[in-house]
Amino acid sequence: MFFHPMDFLILIAFGLTIWAQFKVKSSFNHWAEVPASGGLTGAEVARYILNNNNLPNVPVEVVPGRLSDHYDPMARTVRLSEEVYYGRSIASVSVAAHEVGHAIQHDTSYGFLTLRHRIFPIANIASGAAPLLLLAGFLLQAFSLIGVGILLFSVAVAFQLITLPVEYNASSRAKKLMLAGGMIHDSDRKGVNKVLGAAALTYLAATLISVLELVKYLFIFFQGQTEEE
Predict the structure, then answer these.
(1) Which has fewest Cβ within 10 Å: 18, 91, 132, 228?
(2) Bridge partners of 35?
(3) Each residue of 67-111: pLDDT tens digit?
(4) What are the pLDDT digits (tens) for 133-159?
(5) Where are the domains of the chain?
(6) Which of 44, 61, 82, 99 is an active site residue?
(7) Active site residue 99
(8) Residue 79, SS3?
(9) What gap in Å lies between CA 182 and CA 180, rounded to an integer?
């Protein structure tokens, strides 16, 4: 009842996600050993870019954890892990600049980021409720429950799709701003692309899984509706 031919594609996508997560860690570990040509720490890069984009009031803070770097839109704060904050490697400056990219998106009201912020509360609720409704619907063969579950799951998938351009745009900004500011040089480009590209791949793989799952649920729903007629 629960197996569907599309499960094979979902398993492949899941494998891609595992590989992408491995790629992020391996890329970061490798380029964390390679000094950036600009000689700045991640914190210095973040501060420099923020100051030069009229954001001197956005703090740059250090937080515990590895690869725990993020931009907090509520506090309007860039938070960097210790390795990134103090590091002078290509990996450190790349991640720092990427998070600053989100701060600049926020300041300039970048469309996809604004949309993501607006949909987040709904997507957060939907992602928690959808699996329960779908499970109950399949167990009880109640297609009305499955339909509501699919609707909520669609909101969660939409949030992931919106996240993709947000992440890619932040990485694109990071590369341009670091090059323009002399924080990296052409010799660093390969490493920057590897680090940021691997991170983006994790978002892409996770989104692919969700989209395939949504297609599977839709197929089952409409097939069940047809059989009931």
Answers:
(1) 228
(2) 89
(3) 899 999 999 999 999 999 999 999 999 999 999 999 999 999 999
(4) 999 988 888 888 999 999 999 999 999
(5) 6-228
(6) 99
(7) yes
(8) strand
(9) 6
